[in-house]
User: Which sequence fits this backbone?
DNA sequence: TATTACATGTCGACC
DNA sequence: GGTCGACGTGTAATA
């Protein structure tokens, strides 16, 4: 990894055009060739970047700027990717330029919450709605698996979409699933329930207008809950 | 900005649990206090991070690990944010530790984001379709604002959804808006037009099946265009 | 503060 | 190569 601290200006031309005026920044070049330009603030996202694969051309040279003064010396990196996007870094003054061999990273081990939420609800469907019993988790359809398929007290089929954050596109997803289930006439009536830790207001409106109910569940509470079978006593 | 190259292991506990085994990495600490741990590859996203605001506690000390060997010396950073998420960085060996004063960044100037595209189209709706005139930009509805509402030559209301990239969810969005507009019977017939710099094949198919038209517009061309009023002569 | 929609989103899985 | 769905999404604007 190469780390350059420099006063620089930057131009990106690709999906959009972006320009960074001259200032002091960190330029990070990783072993895979990706380049990122960081300011001294603003979370982890760089101001500008170019992901691998790309090619870097380093230009040194004098440029006749048309004035009577001595020619301006330029030091410029031109980073290009196969999509012909370019990142042009003009280095006005290099304060530091170091490189370190880090080796390949063993990688991140994650233990997620979101898959867990679905597990917990599968174990305790009554937490979604009184009297609900599980038919199948990850119920397969042609357009993807439905998180939970249940039956309610009246034996009506209930399709459940589970999200950590209840956004509007989750409701769209549920809509597509229900549409699909309704093609299978053997199932009879089908209801939809949208479940999330937080359901956004717009998602509530859309869910209701589609005839779905929505439920907000508390993860910690759910985790403390015993499976339905055990709770009968 | 402080840059530490170190052999380290990392644990994050918060929205999920994540662990990084011991390896050589870059630890970046910015002036606003945010911390990012980078491997030597994998685009610009760090393996782990903690955004500002947060507090860093640096621990030095000996730990009795229970063995007969000499106690293990530990050097550990514990980063905590107000939401009680924690990032624990254990430094096994520090290869380099430098700091640089960068100052505040003048910031990024962007050109070509969706807002610009919408502005240009609002100024020149005829670029979307001949004879189109603007009724209102950001037309408000209960489920969000419609990018552009226009009328065509026959005075029919036309709802326009503008996207930089024409994906399938943009068509869904337009569908919801039209659904909503049709509840307001005073508007009469309503057509939908999906506008983007590039419309993906699936989005084209879906738009057509919904009875919408789709249009691909060139940003640079649009920018060179004069507003409709001026173009009448 | 909360709510919304955009993002050069990024990233992985699957087809 | 494309689409789809999730992300510790982040981020800025707006109410």
Assistant:
């Amino acid at each position: 990894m190469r780390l350059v601290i420099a006063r620089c200006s930057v131009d990106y031309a690709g999906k959009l055009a972006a320009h960074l005026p001259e200032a002091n920044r960190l330029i990070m070049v990783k072993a895979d060739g990706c380049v990122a330009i960081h300011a001294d603030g603003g979370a982890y996202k760089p101001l500008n970047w170019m992901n691998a694969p790309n090619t870097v051309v380093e230009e040194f040279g004098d440029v006749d700027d048309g004035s009577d003064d001595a020619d301006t010396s330029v030091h410029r990196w031109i980073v290009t990717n196969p999509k012909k996007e370019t990142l042009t870094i003009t280095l006005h003054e290099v304060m530091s330029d170091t490189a370190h061999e880090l080796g390949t990273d063993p990688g991140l081990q994650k233990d997620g919450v979101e898959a867990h939420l679905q597990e917990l609800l599968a174990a305790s469907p009554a937490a979604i709605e009184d009297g609900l019993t599980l038919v199948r988790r990850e119920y397969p359809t042609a357009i993807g698996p439905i998180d939970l398929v249940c039956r309610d007290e009246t034996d009506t089929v209930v399709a459940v979409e589970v999200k950590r954050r209840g956004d509007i596109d989750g409701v769209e997803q549920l809509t597509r699933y229900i549409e699909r289930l309704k093609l299978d006439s053997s199932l009879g009536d089908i209801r939809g329930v949208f479940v999330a830790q937080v359901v956004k207001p717009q998602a509530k409106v859309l869910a209701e207008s589609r005839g779905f109910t929505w439920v907000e569940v508390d993860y910690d509470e759910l985790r403390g809950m015993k499976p339905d079978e055990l709770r009968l006593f």
In short: Residues 80 and 86 of chain B are 5 Å apart (CA to CA). The two ends of chain B are 57 Å apart (CA to CA). Chain B has a mean pLDDT of 89.
